Amino acid sequence: MALPAINPTTTQAWKLLKKHFEDIKNIHMKDLFASDSNRANTNSIIWEDFYVDYSKNRLTSETMEYLLQLAEEVKLKDAMAGYFSGDVINETEGREVLHTALRAPKSAKIIVDGEDVMPEIYRVKQDIETFTNNVVSGELKGYTGKSFTDVVNIGIGGSDLGPAMVVESLQYYKNHLTTHFVSNVDGDHVNEVIKELDPETTLFVVVSKTFTTQETLSNANTLRTWFLEHANQEAVASHFVAVSTNIEKVKEFGINEANIFPMWNWVGGRFSLWSAVGLTISLAVGYKNFESLLEGAHQMDEHFKTTDFKNNIPVVLALISVWYNNFFKAESEAVIGYSQYLTQFATYLQQGIMESNGKSVDRNGDKVDYQTGTLIWGEPGTNSQHAFFQLIHQGTKLIPADFIGFAESLHGNKDHQDKLMSNFLAQTEALLNGKTKAQVLQEMESQKLSDVEKQKLLPFKVFEGNKPTNTIFIKKLTPASLGKLIAMYEHKIFVQGVIWNIFSYDQWGVELGKQLANKILKEFDGAENYEHDSSTLNLLNYYKKQRQ
Ligand SMILES: O=P(O)(O)OC[C@H]1O[C@H](O)[C@H](O)[C@@H](O)[C@@H]1O
């Protein structure tokens, strides 16, 4: 069944929200808290090891009522049923969207083209487990009989960002293997990694869903050439494995069929870390931890699938985001993880969110006349506090932010953890309340300033507050809780795509640049009568001169 295609602006709920927005747009959250002592409790969801507090948002129970009505009116329930059961909801590519099947239990039955995909998923999982155990235990050897010490993941986009982010986030759980990620076609990337490698003990994992991606094939070729400077052709078989849907292309590249981990067209690149694309994750943290990551994601799938919308974390977060995006006209959202392990989390989400929902044509093929996908950015706290928080606190832009924190530390240093958590809590409080003129003046009392000096400084020291945040407080960073967190954002993406009536699972917008790059690449060594605008032509000729 196709996804329902309902223009959200034609719903009753949208009209109610529009009117309601005019009524509450200037209300300060401080007043909402003052008038309802139970606000924090009624606007939070406690589920397993997740405590999601969304009370520090510019909304009332009436707002939530209309937002939930919007979810009903766009037929979110029907869309969810299609998402989980393998409907072709990626209509422009004619594909199912089944990353949730990758983490479903063995007993599940998910039919694609008349066939249950679960046995095949579990067969590949078994291969991942066996291979991981053989590499980690040192049983599998390189061409000179030494065990592997290093793993190089060669991929880009979804074949890089997911595995790289998870490996970074689960660093605490890592084994002795050193992992490297090569993605950029910039030769500096691969060459810097090569400096750290020993060909005798390095395993290469070439990851590409299509196996046609220029960057990945170039990097894989360069690494293989370097490898062959030290080893002979037969050694490639014991040092190179691949993950792809395109078995023929992988074989053409020279990797043995036995060394290919398959994936499927019904897994989108940016949602693929749960498949064999996550092989590097499994190698880095061990199969058991990889499995826990998947189990955590599955628990979030169940929560999303079975919980009423009002208490459904991904649904509520998606609706709040729509509220800011479409009514307050907020352009971006920040994601701030209070954990150094989450350094790559926002970068990862950028692909997930912006490649999925950066669309301007609706599911009927018509241009939308409302805003869709949000810009996503962020860095871990507390570092980001000392970098860009100034703008969030006192700038002119409204930037709703997700604050993600872990109550228990992994390192066990209470002093550091208390300081980290005090910042985590203080920032959302500061963003909520701000600082009034009266408070600033009171603070100034102890300072030796004249009244004129005080009045001069006053406007700069006032914080308006009323800056919205969600707090996603998780008990501890584990493979399972990370799996839940990632799946939470995946479902948020889905819900927003349904509301905005767009296709979230294609990415036609990345094609044009690729096509032109291929054309220009040929022109570097070709004749000079190219068809380009004058700017591109000048730049192209400038480069041609420089490279001679
Ligand atoms: O895995 P691959 O086929 O090499 O694709 C890698 C990436 O490249 C494309 O340009 C897409 O925009 C991404 O969604 C994809 O993850």
UniProtKB/TrEMBL annotation:
GO-annotated biological processes: gluconeogenesis; glucose 6-phosphate metabolic process; glycolytic process
Keyword Isomerase belongs to the record: yes
Catalytic residues as annotated in Swiss-Prot or TrEMBL: 355 (proton donor), 386, 514
EC number(s) from the headed UniProt entry: 5.3.1.9
Pathway in which this enzyme or protein is active: Carbohydrate degradation; glycolysis; D-glyceraldehyde 3-phosphate and glycerone phosphate from D-glucose: step 2/4; Carbohydrate biosynthesis; gluconeogenesis
UniProt record similarity statement: Belongs to the GPI family.
Protein name, entry field: Glucose-6-phosphate isomerase
Organism, as annotated: Formosa sediminum
